[in-house]
Amino acid sequence: MLAVESLRVTFRRDRAPPVEVLRGVSLTLERGATLGIVGESGSGKSVLALSVIGLLPRNARAEGRVLLDGTDLLTLSERGMRDVRGRRIGMIFQEPMTALNPAMRVGVQIAEGLRVRRGLSRGNARTEALRLLDRVQIPQAGRRIDSYPHEMSGGERQRVGIAIALALEPDLLIADEPTTALDVTVQAGILDILGDLVADLGLSLILISHDLGVIARLADRTLVMHRGAEIEQDATERVLRRPGHDYTRTLIDAMPRRARATLEAGRA
Ligand SMILES: Nc1ncnc2c1ncn2[C@@H]1O[C@H](COP(=O)(O)OP(=O)(O)OP(=O)(O)O)[C@@H](O)[C@H]1O
Asked: Which residue of 31, 39, 43, 243 has the smallest Cβ count within 10 Å?
């Protein structure tokens, strides 16, 4: 469903030469599949995600093609891209607090997209918001629907972020470091939810993380990035068992001990 072809992104800077931060990256993603993108900070993972959803800053120039079911998103107008964003491609960010309005009850925030973009009545939008909160496993959703973001834990806020993305029924979700701000047990819960959504709803998922342990839990295929370029891209199991590059080996060595133990057990 998604094919990125030779994507180059350059940032213009005042009086300094432009910097190329993506240097010809290509990837493909099948419907219902999960692609992991891993690499250290600054390798270009977020810039790649922003290119796909058309949210690059104004000083950026993108070349290449980003094909969603054959349509090149880089050629769409801002208005055309607004239709794609949310409805076709949902985005989940690292820090859910920045994506949520602190002064609005979470149920209202989920319902807003349902009313404005899916045309649901106020009552139906609330019912659907409740169903979505259940879907992302917020306990006592009937009561929590009227909570404000600050009344929820970090993990619950991220679940609300996922519910907001799901509300528009996208067929592709991009999760950029969705668990980095959370502690390990909460992290596992969020990853389980994302895995269930892919399995139950047939969503495609791009999961971005600097942590190969996170990627290994969910991704069928993994793209390893370094300094804006692809290092390798293959079935996740292959990347983990037979890394084709020293850089990938460094990332495997940096995996938390527990994730590595699971991997070793799988190998034995
Ligand atoms: N608005 C911008 N203007 C100029 N350079 C930028 C801008 N945004 C990102 N960059 C540069 O692009 C490069 C890639 O950044 P990006 O955020 O994609 O990395 P990343 O792999 O997602 O890292 P992190 O995990 O820290 O977010 C970095 O060198 C960064 O400094």
From this structure: 31
The residues of the chain that CATH labels 3.40.50.300 are: 26-58+75-88+174-268
Assess if CATH 2.30.40.10 describes domain 26-58+75-88+174-268. Answer: no
Helix or strand holding residue 186 (H, E) = helix 184-201
Query: Which pLDDT belongs to residue 255?
Result: 83
Q: What is the pLDDT of residues 224-246, one digit of tens each?
A: 999 999 999 999 999 999 999 99
First-to-last alpha carbon distance for the chain, in angstroms, is 35
Ligand 1 neighbours (beta carbon < 6 A): 11, 21, 39, 41-47, 57, 59, 210
3-class DSSP state of 23:
strand
Look up residue 15 and give its two tokens: 């009086």
Backbone angles phi, psi at 125, to 5 degrees: -65, -40
For residue 161, how many other CB atoms are within 10 A of its CB?
A: 29
Helix, strand, or coil (residue 166)? helix
Which residue in 52, 80, 92 sits closest to 173, CA to CA?
92
For ligand 1, atom 26, which residue shows the shortest CA distance?
Answer: 41
157 Cα: distance to centroid of ligand 1 (angstroms): 25
Q: Which of 234, 240, 246, 235 is nearest to 259 (CA)?
A: 240
Per-residue model confidence as pLDDT tens digits over 145-200: 999 999 999 999 999 999 999 999 999 999 999 998 888 889 999 999 999 999 99
